[in-house]
């Protein structure tokens, strides 16, 4: 499958401080790719290099197999929404889209604007000044602006930060729709791990200048090597007794009291030693639930490994 983004051994240093120490990854066509990492880990730097806005020290960052800074033709296949929505507060929603549509030389301007206002559910606000829009509405219009020219790939840098949960969902739904119905490849940098887990096909976790994890969310969750198990006790007053039994089991790495019982983290996938230990001690079990680890758990593990 064609790679929309190809990053190979990319290095960048600012003021002698290495930010990217040789990162490599590809994004095939059709993916929603989640680019994760703590503040200052170099996500925006990577995106800026990919967009041709910043020069790397070495390595390559290609979009459709071209460096964007040198190819206007490839640039036309790319949509971008960085921190700023790129909108004019003193123009209406319609006027903003019209301005950019003319700038991009879009042929079917009126039809495309109508389509995008409907897509972002802003038709009824088309003649409203953008300065009066909520943050969520501005972000949706920002996405409409970024996709006016029907790009094949859309770069989004933290598109839902500063949005309330309802607006986050609206933007998330737009992204999923763009990826599904419009077959757009989406490169999404985000701190919202729940959102990334919900919509991304694959993720990269950037930390300390290198990529610490790169896989599908499903594989990362499956292969994380640890399991969380929640156990409800028939008699919750036995929880302290359970703690002393369970704490002696070598595969148990964490014990947390919860309502009606406890949860444990295991260093392998088998809950049998815990169950048989409790049974031997005469502690009756009401329910055992094995939880899949969340992307957040995995992310925190990666950060801890580095600490
Ligand atoms: N133009 C620049 N000059 C000097 N240092 C820079 C420049 N741009 C970025 N940096 C530094 O590079 C590091 C990485 O910044 P970057 O913005 O890429 O991180 P990020 O992962 O996007 O962070 P955040 O999640 O906070 O947006 C930071 O320490 C930042 O201060």
From TrEMBL:
Keywords: ATP-binding, Nucleotide-binding, Transport. The keyword Transport applies. InterPro entries: AAA+_ATPase, ABC_transporter-like_ATP-bd, DrrA1/2-like_C, P-loop_NTPase. The keyword ATP-binding applies. Pfam families: ABC_tran (PF00005), DrrA1-3_C (PF13732). Residues 5-233 form the ABC transporter domain. Belongs to the ABC transporter superfamily. This is ABC transporter ATP-binding protein. It comes from Methanogenium marinum.
């Amino acid at each position: 499958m064609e790679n929309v983004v190809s990053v190979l051994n990319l290095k960048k240093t600012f003021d002698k401080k290495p930010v990217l120490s040789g990162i490599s990854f590809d994004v095939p066509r059709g993916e929603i790719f989640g680019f994760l990492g703590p503040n200052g880990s170099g996500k925006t730097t990577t995106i800026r290099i990919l967009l041709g806005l910043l020069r790397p020290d070495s390595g390559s960052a290609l979009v459709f197999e071209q460096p964007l800074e040198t190819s206007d033709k490839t640039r036309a296949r790319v949509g971008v929404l960085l921190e700023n929505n790129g909108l004019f507060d003193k123009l209406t929603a319609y006027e903003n889209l019209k301005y950019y549509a003319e700038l991009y030389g879009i042929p079917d301007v009126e039809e495309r604007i109508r389509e995008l206002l409907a897509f972002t559910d802003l038709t009824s606000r088309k003649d409203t000044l953008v300065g009066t829009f909520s943050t969520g509405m501005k972000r949706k219009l920002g996405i409409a602006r970024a996709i006016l020219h029907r790009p094949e790939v859309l770069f989004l840098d933290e598109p839902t930060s500063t949005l309330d949960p309802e607006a986050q969902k609206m933007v998330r739904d737009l992204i999923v729709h763009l990826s599904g119905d419009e077959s757009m490849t989406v490169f999404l940098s985000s701190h919202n791990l729940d959102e990334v887990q919900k919509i991304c096909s694959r993720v990269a976790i950037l930390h300390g200048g290198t990529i610490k994890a790169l896989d599908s969310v499903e594989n990362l969750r499956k292969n994380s090597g640890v399991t969380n198990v929640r156990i409800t006790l028939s008699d919750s007053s036995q929880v302290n007794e359970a703690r002393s039994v369970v704490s002696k089991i070598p595969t148990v790495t964490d014990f947390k009291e919860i309502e009606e019982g406890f949860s444990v983290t295991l260093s392998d996938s088998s809950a049998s030693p815990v169950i048989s230990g409790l049974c031997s001690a005469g502690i009756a079990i009401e329910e055992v639930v094995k939880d899949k680890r969340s992307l957040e758990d995995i992310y925190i593990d990666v950060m801890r490994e580095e600490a």
